[in-house]
Amino acid sequence: MHYKILIKTAKYSIKCNGFNYVMLYAFSLILYIITCPGNVTLAISLILSIIMLYASILSDKLNIAQLINAYNIVGLKRKEIALAFYIFVNIRILLITMVYIIAYPNFTVIAYLFVLSNIFIALVYHFSFQRG
Amino acid sequence: MKDIIVTVKNLWKYYNYMGQRIAILKGVNVLLYRGDVACIYGPSGAGKTTFLKILAGLERPDAGEIIVEGYNLTLLDDDALATLRTTIVSYIPQDYGLIDDFTVYENVELPLLVAGIPEEERRVILLETLRYMGIVEKMYTKVKYLSGGEKQRVAIARALVVTPSLLLADEPTANLDWENAKRVLELFTRINRDFETTITIVSHDARVLEFANRRFALYDGVLKEV
Ligand SMILES: Nc1ncnc2c1ncn2[C@@H]1O[C@H](COP(=O)(O)OP(=O)(O)O)[C@@H](O)[C@H]1O
Ligand SMILES: [Mg+2]
């Protein structure tokens, strides 16, 4: 697949509404982690992050459906469309990752965020986007 | 001898509706020749969209055989069907299937990116196609700011950039007033003449029939040439 399609998809993710929510969330998250340090905070922040990602995907549901539909029509393969969706979401995960790098640079926490959110997003993709 | 481009043999398609298996297409047979402009007329719910999607490889039939340019669609896997859409068959959905937040240029560029055409060549093909479709001055406008007729042209341009041998259009006039609809239909006629593209249009508007050389009616899942 042409790398330009992936770049366009990433840019699209940033331009869609849901990205603004993630950005606002990211700012509050920095404050939260810095002002109330501790394991409970981290655990809660991970759950919040995944909920927030989900909310941002939901709010862009129509845009994503439009993107996937167009990609399908012009002949992108199934796996390539899944990859595009993965990039779309991971741009947002990257933003949240940066919060942790700034506020609590701990590899384990970031790994958890990455793995958990991607598992969750894979489920969302499977159940709501893959079939039309 | 005319060159056969589409063969459909005994095509059946079912959907599940409230637990029941309902037949939408009941043994459709059709032969299209290169250069045909075929128009399929049928009331809403007759199965026109389903039929086109099957020809485009976007849906699979439950029984029957479809051969497009020598490719037996029922034997191809999903990836091969996708590749067919970047080379041989182009599908224009009723709602255009464009990305509203992309510019005209970006939308029409997509199939060329998928086909792996290099940058300069892409630009040349794009400008040529947009000029041909009369939308070159809108090329940096986002699709969401266009009128229905303009969106239809963008959708046709996107279908045309890969120079398909078969162009499928789903209700291309449904969202347009008759003046604009006529212009779009004349455009299809011109595309057919200039590129020898075989075109299949489905519509619930019988006025579309006069623009075709092959006329079909789809009623209750049965296709008949009229
Ligand atoms: N994915 C689907 N699942 C179940 N029923 C469907 C599906 N797609 C279409 N149908 C039904 O099949 C019939 C034919 O649909 P369609 O091909 O869209 O007709 P047309 O385009 O001629 O209006 C309709 O009754 C529609 O409700
Ligand atoms: Mg329809």
From TrEMBL, chain B:
InterPro entries: AAA+_ATPase, ABC_transporter-like_ATP-bd, ABC_transporter-like_CS, ABC_transpr_LolD-like, MacB-like_ATP-bd, P-loop_NTPase. One of its GO terms (molecular function) is ATP hydrolysis activity. GO terms for cellular component: plasma membrane. It comes from the Archaea. SMART domains: AAA. PROSITE patterns: ABC_TRANSPORTER_1, ABC_TRANSPORTER_2. Pfam families: ABC_tran. Gene3D superfamilies: P-loop containing nucleotide triphosphate hydrolases. Keywords: ATP-binding, Nucleotide-binding, Transport. Residues 6-226 form the ABC transporter domain. PANTHER family: IMPORT ATP-BINDING PROTEIN. This is ABC transporter ATP-binding protein. The lineage of its organism: Archaea, Thermoproteota, Thermoprotei, Desulfurococcales, Desulfurococcaceae.
